[in-house]
Every structure is written in C-alpha cells, then in structure tokens.
Design brief:
The chain is α/β, with parallel strands linked by helices and 397 residues long. Helix content is 44%, strand content 11%. Helix 3 packs parallel to helix 4, helix 8 packs parallel to helix 11 and helix 15 packs across helix 16.
Length: 397
C-alpha cells in the first residue's frame, strides 16, 4: 500500500505529505530490512507494544524481534532508536539482544518516545512541546541532535537524558494526562448531583496557569492507543517493584466505571430498557480525526446497547473500516439525519466536526422519540429544548 502511495491509517494531511516526499526522493518504502539499514546513521524501532493479555504488561515481542533483525544488518556505527512506548529497562535489553545476535556490532541505543496526538500528529511533530532523547554516549547524542537539527535550529526544546529517565517521562506524562481526564469526569458526576455545570468548572480550573485547560473536557472516558495501555503498564511496573502507583491504579478503575455510568445514563433516557429501542450513535472512534478504535468508549457502550436488545445505527466518518469487525450487530449509515429517522434516542459519542453543527430541529422531527444524549457536551439543554427534544442529557451538566 505504501509503495502504491496509499496510507493504511487515517491521519489528516499524511497522504499529501507522504506523496510530496516520495516524489522528491526523500522517502522510500521497502520490505527488505537489511538493504534499508545498511549505511544508516540511525534506525528507529516503531513497532507496536500492545498490552499483554493476562498481566497488563506491554508486549515487547515485536521490539526484540526488530532489534535482533537490525543486529544482522548493522553496517558501521549506528544508533538504534526505540520510538515505541516501552517499560523501564527495555532499551538496555534491546542493547543486549543486539550484542547477543552480533557481538561485533558498533552501535548505541537511544530512547526517543513520541508524544504525537492522533489527528494532529503532523503539527505535533513539526511544532513539538519538547523532544525527549535518552542516550548513553556523547556520540549517540550528536547523531540524535543531527536527526532533529531542523527543530533544534528553531529553538524547540530537545531534552537529553539517560535511558531510564526518557522511558519514565513517556509513562509519567501519559498517566498524568489520563488522570486529568478522569478527574474532570469524576467532578462531572458530582456536578450532576449538585446542579453545577462542569464546562464552567473546567474553564474556571483551566485558567489557573498551574493547571491549564487541556484534557479537562468531561466525556465518556479516555480510550485510544496510548492511555489505556500505558496506565496499565505503569501500574504493573509499580506493583512488581513494590512501589504501587495508587493514583494510576485508581484512574484505570474510575475510567472503567465512567463508561458503565454512561450506559446507565442512556438506559434512563430509554425508560429503563434498551429492548426494542432504535438508537442512533454518532461517532465510535476514540476521538475525532482518526480511524483508531483501540479501547474506544464505544467498544463498551455499543455492545451493551446491542446486548440489551436495541437496534443500533452508527454514523462515523472514518470508523467503519475497523468498526465493522469490532461492533457486530449494528447498522452502519453515512448520514446522521437518516440514522435518526424513527429513532428513540440519539447519542453523540465522538465529537467529529460533522456533529457539531447539526440541524437539531430537523433531527428531532425525524425521531420517533426526540431524545438526545450528548456525551461530549457539544450542545446545551436550551438548544435541545428549543429544537423540540423532549429529553436531553449531557455529562456533568
């Protein structure tokens, strides 16, 4: 696919960027690792590290397999850079794997964790908050500085550390962001009980420079390729080293509870039962501007609706390719208005731009029972009532 100019994932702008650099001769693709690695100054390992079934650890099988294959192809001094998110100590193990496979290899290892947001990856790479580089030698540090020279010249922070600190920075950052999301979701539940508005609470908190406004948006819980996997791995590392990550462990537990709370919220809007109800779901990817379904809240919520006897219609601009296999028993549709036809409940689960400017009055007229569950707080009760919805529920409002 890549050789044919096709991108196997959805990321805004990536297809044009790839085509531009292929045409300029700066970018090529190959299945032959040996020819690609020979003569390289740096080789990046960027394979998946999924959560291992049964124990919550990151599965490093692909990382070590890549390292062993690289060992047989190294030609002269090379920096082997781990881009994948890996637990503490992994880079030292990568070094041992390479030495075992090729004792004569001239190389260093480096840890260079990525902090790209899906849906905004290109901008994040070109304008990073920081670049983290963990190394063991000055020579490796110089190579990595050359790699990131364009960013260095534009004064973006490049932080050079030891290997373990670089590995820890990645896990600590993701666990903290997951904590912010989970914290505001807990506050949202309390807001619902006391009559406060979590959007106003978030704004008031976020204006404090010590806190910041990012990741303070209440919703159906975090998902995606990073937060669930990395919080789980950090919790397991802490348990094994007898330094329990109690906050992270609680974040994982509360995030799971938030998804279940969303299901009960929908059940209440369906008068206590999903059986026989027609429910339209807008958005199933874990966030907008991606086709990633990994650990998306929809994977917990939608099966509960189907299992409860509901007829579920799904609309998502990019989610169908992965979602068809992950969400059996649903009817995929291309249009929110058609999905709402004779429906008993409309649920906004992912805040795609297409769902931010809906004609609510038009949708309400199409529904059998105009009821709206706005799990991303895009609209307001006043908007819904004015449009003719008989019931509206959001998160923390």
């Amino acid at each position: 696919m890549l050789e044919a100019g096709k991108v196997p994932i959805y990321e805004p702008g990536l297809d044009q960027l790839m085509a531009k650099n292929v045409a300029a001769g700066r970018l090529t693709f190959s299945g032959d690792l040996k020819s690609a690695v020979q003569g390289a100054d740096a080789v990046f390992i960027a394979v998946g590290t999924p959560t291992r079934r049964g124990d919550g650890h990151a599965d490093l099988t692909f990382v070590f397999a890549a390292a062993e294959e690289i060992a047989g192809a190294i030609d002269g001094y090379t920096v082997v850079v781990t881009k994948s998110t890996v637990p503490l100590g992994t880079n030292r193990r990568v070094k041992q794997v390479i030495l075992k496979a090729n004792p004569d290899a001239e190389f260093d290892v480096a840890s260079n964790p990525e902090f790209l947001r899906e849906g905004a990856a290109i901008d994040d790479f070109m304008r990073p908050d920081r670049v983290i580089v963990g190394v063991q030698s000055e020579r490796a540090a110089e190579v990595m500085q050359d790699v990131y020279r364009p960013l260095f010249l534009r004064d973006f922070p490049i932080v050079t550390t030891d290997l373990e600190s670089a590995e820890m920075i990645k896990y600590a950052a993701n666990a903290f962001l997951a904590t912010k999301i989970t914290f505001i979701n807990e506050i949202a539940a309390l807001c619902e009980k006391v009559g406060a508005d979590v959007k106003q609470v978030s704004k008031g908190m976020g204006l404090d420079g010590r806190i910041g406004n990012k990741f303070l948006h209440a919703g159906p819980g975090y998902g995606g390729s990073c937060f669930p996997k990395d919080t789980s791995a950090l919790a397991r590392i802490g348990q094994e080293l007898a330094v329990p990550m109690q906050i992270t462990e609680t974040v994982i537990k509360v995030n799971d509870e938030i998804k279940r709370r969303m299901i009960e919220k929908l059940r209440d809007l369906c008068e206590g039962s999903f059986n026989g109800k027609t429910i339209a779901i807008l958005g199933v990817t874990f966030k907008p501007n991606t086709d990633d379904m990994r650990d998306a809240p929809s994977l917990t919520i939608v099966p509960a609706l189907v299992g409860g006897g509901a007829k579920v219609r799904v609309v998502d601009p990019q989610g169908m390719r992965e979602g068809e296999a992950l969400l059996p028993g649903v009817n995929w549709m291309q249009d929110a208005y058609k999905a709402a036809q004779n429906a008993d409940l409309l649920v906004i689960l992912t805040e795609w731009n297409e769902f931010r400017a809906l004609d609510l009055k038009k949708i309400a007229k199409k529904m059998a029972r105009p009821r709206l569950a706005d799990l991303r707080n895009i609209y307001s009760a006043k908007d819904a009532k004015r449009a003719g919805f008989e019931a509206y529920d959001a998160v923390g409002r």
